[in-house]
């Protein structure tokens, strides 16, 4: 008389497996604490590095690939972060970051 005994498979845990401390590349990582990335420079910091004589009035028709800062009628003074392509630039203003047009003929 043999009993039919079957072992149950272990239950799968949901979600991503937790990382071990040795798996995390930064040394400052502590178990249970979230790691923070360093903040990008904010508008105040970037604005402090720009001289007022370098600020150019914004127009759709101009090319801003060599310019660091613009003065927009609606958004105010903005610092150009990137030239995305030949017709778009990414600009950080005091309240928000915007993508603006350039070389628009």
Protein described:
The chain is mainly beta and 105 residues long. It has one helix at 43-48, and strands spanning 55-57, 69-72, 76-85, 88-92, 97-101. The protein has a domain at 40-101. The longest helix is centred in the middle third of the chain and has 6 residues, at 43-48. The radius of gyration is 26 Å and the shape is elongated.
Throw out a few tags for this protein.
mainly beta; 5-stranded mixed β-sheet; 105 residues; elongated
User: How many alpha or pi helices?
Assistant: 1
Mean of pLDDT: 80
List segments where confidence is low: pLDDT < 50 over at least 5 consecutive residues. none
Shape: elongated
N-C termini distance = 91 Å
Output the radius of gyration. Answer: 26 Å
Quaternary structure state of the chains depicted? single chain
Biggest sheet, strands in spatial order?
Answer: 1-2-3-4-5
- Following the backbone from N to C, one meets helices and strands in this order, namely HEEEEE
| Range of helix content | under 10%
Strand content: 25-35%
Number of strands: 5
Helix/strand/pairing category: mainly beta
Largest sheet: 5 strands, mixed
């Amino acid at each position: 008389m043999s009993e039919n005994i079957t072992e149950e498979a272990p239950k799968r845990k949901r979600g991503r497996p937790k990382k071990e401390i040795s798996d995390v590349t930064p040394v400052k990582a502590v178990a249970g604490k979230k790691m923070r990335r360093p903040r990008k420079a904010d508008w105040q910091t970037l604005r402090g590095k720009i001289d007022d004589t370098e600020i150019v009035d914004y127009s759709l028709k101009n090319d801003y690939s060599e310019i660091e800062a613009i003065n927009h009628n609606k958004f105010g003074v903005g610092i150009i972060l990137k030239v995305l392509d030949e017709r778009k630039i990414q600009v950080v203003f005091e309240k928000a970051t915007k993508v603006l047009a350039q070389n628009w003929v």
